[in-house]
């Protein structure tokens, strides 16, 4: 067993309330799971060495629910462009460059480094349609000591111009990657990743649904981002009408972990179905605001329907994977929405929950220090933020969330083991 002592231990076992422990001990079993949080160690543990973290604060590690690896070089670019120009001038050229080994190797390495720096120990990563780039991302991630769901993006219909790949190649390359990586590593697994319904043929979605069901793989996909793609789905599937019905029809929703990204125009029935099936709704607040999305789903609306929710960076639709910034963006966006729509703004506890246990739901027991959960954790030093010490632990933590940057994270743990810096940071 390993024991860690910190001046503050903070997590959110439930969605709307912080659980705060001052001068507490977190005891971790040899298998990397949490034994419990103790204010005083029981007699049976007094002989076990303690790692004293001093005045620092211990929190669960973050999960980024959605990022595009190929788009990392574009983060922070083109947000003053019309969407079509952003795709033509930045997105598509970046996807093509990502097919070059030297480039995708460097980009994948940078993504892992950025996640490590920002305390994102779990991430769901949508790669490009390229086999080599996705294979390289798997190999680098397996070596990182962190956890991820990674999927080759599937996109075989020319909805927005030229098809990214042929149906045959999409199926072939996906099958190769699934056979090589699905359910083979305890930290890194394959995620079935159709770009979204309008860019995937029936044949491709049938194959992807079969793969997901056969191997019990997670499915990560964009859904109902705007009126244009929602109308495309209605016209193409008049008998099904909605994204949710189409994804259920092709067995991409239900029977395995699934997540829907953006889903700005989800109907009330779609939200009820998501709640019933446990499908995670991933909101990417910076992406919606950076890109000027026509309508954003009020996160409170999904929460009120009982939908499990999480946060994502959506680089390069969003400009940063700093989860502290993303939490604040989600809260600020909810406050603005509450001025015009009848939804209560999100609280600090709720956005922290979404960044930790909410997103961790996709991966199992992570994102909390409850007994039996994996010790996936960050050690924070708030002396790097401000020389003026707050009056109490909660005030200290509130200031951390609003003002922290990656330099405040001094240690990172995944399944009980400290995660060292990636090789390109050493």
Classify the fold: give the CATH topology of the largest domain: TIM Barrel
Assign the CATH superfamily of the largest domain: Metal-dependent hydrolases
* Count of structural domains: 2
Strand content is 15-25%
Question: Could you give the distance between the termini?
Answer: 29 Å
Mean pLDDT: 95
Q: Indicate the overall shape.
A: globular
Fraction of residues in helices? 25-40%
Q: List low-confidence stretches.
A: none
Give me the number of helical elements: 13
Structural class: alpha/beta
User: Main β-sheet: number of strands, strand sense, barrel status?
Assistant: 8 strands, mixed
Return the CATH class of the largest domain: Alpha Beta
Please state the second-level CATH architecture of the largest domain. Alpha-Beta Barrel
Strand runs, count: 18
How would you briefly describe this protein structure?
This protein has 426 residues and is of the alpha/beta class. It is built from 13 helices and 18 strands. Helix content is 36%, strand content 22%.
Would you give an account of this structure?
It contains 13 helices and 18 strands. It has 426 residues and is of the alpha/beta class. Helix 11 packs across helix 13 (393-403). The protein is globular. 49% of the residues are buried. The mean pLDDT is 95.
Overview features:
TIM Barrel; Urease, subunit C, domain 1; eight-stranded mixed β-sheet; four-stranded parallel β-sheet; 426 residues; alpha/beta; 36% helix
């Amino acid at each position: 067993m390993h024991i860690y002592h910190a001046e503050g231990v903070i997590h959110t076992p439930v969605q709307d309330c912080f659980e705060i422990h001052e001068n507490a001990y977190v005891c971790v079993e040899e298998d990397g799971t949490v034994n419990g949080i103790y204010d005083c160690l029981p007699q049976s543990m007094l002989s076990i060495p303690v790692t004293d973290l001093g005045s620092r604060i211990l929190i669960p590690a973050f999960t980024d629910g959605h990022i595009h690896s190929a788009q990392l070089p574009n983060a922070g670019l083109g947000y003053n462009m019309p969407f079509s120009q952003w795709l033509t001038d930045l997105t598509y050229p970046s996807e093509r460059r990502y097919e070059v080994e030297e480039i995708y190797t460097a980009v994948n390495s940078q993504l892992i480094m950025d996640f490590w720096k920002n305390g994102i120990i779990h991430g769901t990563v949508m790669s490009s349609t390229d086999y080599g780039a996705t294979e390289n991302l798997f190999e680098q991630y397996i070596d990182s000591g962190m956890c991820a769901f990674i999927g080759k993006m599937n996109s075989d219909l020319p909805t927005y111009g030229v098809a990214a790949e042929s149906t045959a190649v999409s199926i072939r390359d996906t099958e190769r990657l699934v056979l090589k990586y699905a359910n083979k590593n305890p930290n890194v697994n394959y995620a079935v990743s159709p770009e979204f319904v309008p860019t995937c043929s029936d044949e491709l979605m049938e194959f992807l649904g079969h793969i997901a069901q056969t191997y019990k793989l997670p499915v990560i996909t964009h859904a109902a981002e705007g009126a244009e793609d929602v109308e495309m789905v209605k016209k193409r599937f008049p008998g099904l009408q909605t994204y949710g019905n189409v994804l259920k029809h092709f067995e991409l929703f239900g029977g395995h972990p699934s997540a829907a990204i953006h889903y700005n125009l989800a109907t009330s029935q779609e939200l009820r179905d998501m709640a019933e099936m446990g499908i995670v709704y991933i909101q990417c607040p910076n992406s919606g605001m950076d890109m000027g999305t026509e309508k954003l789903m009020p996160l409170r609306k999904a929460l009120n329907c009982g939908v499990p929710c999480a946060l994502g960076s959506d680089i390069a639709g969003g400009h940063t994977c700093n989860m502290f910034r993303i939490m604040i963006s989600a809260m600020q966006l909810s406050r603005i929405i509450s001025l015009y729509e009848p939804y209560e703004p999100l609280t600090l506890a709720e956005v922290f929950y979404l960044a930790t246990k909410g997103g961790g739901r996709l991966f199992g027991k992570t994102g909390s220090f409850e007994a039996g959960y994996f010790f996936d954790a960050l050690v924070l030093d708030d002396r790097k933020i401000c020389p003026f010490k707050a009056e109490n632990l909660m005030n200290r933590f509130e200031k951390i969330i609003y003002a922290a940057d990656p330099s405040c994270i001094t240690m990172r743990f995944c399944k009980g083991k400290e995660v060292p810096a990636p090789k390109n940071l050493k």
